[in-house]
Amino acid sequence: MSDRVKDRVDALNKRAALRSMTVRRVHEPPYGWMLANPFRVVCSGSLENIEAWLTAAELQDKKPVILNPVATQADY
Q: How far apart are CA 60 and CA 50, in angstroms?
């Protein structure tokens, strides 16, 4: 593994660790990477796929929680 890939995997592992997950290499075909928690594989594919999943999850965390979605629409 090249130093650039290793650095990228290390950075993704730091982000994944905040969600109790880890990034690991897949050893069966199709080869690539997987993002997994202790119970299941959450995402697999390229490092770009892993990064996109983590980014989407982090953005979802920043959204406010709507307790009553019906009351938020002006038509009611």
A: 15
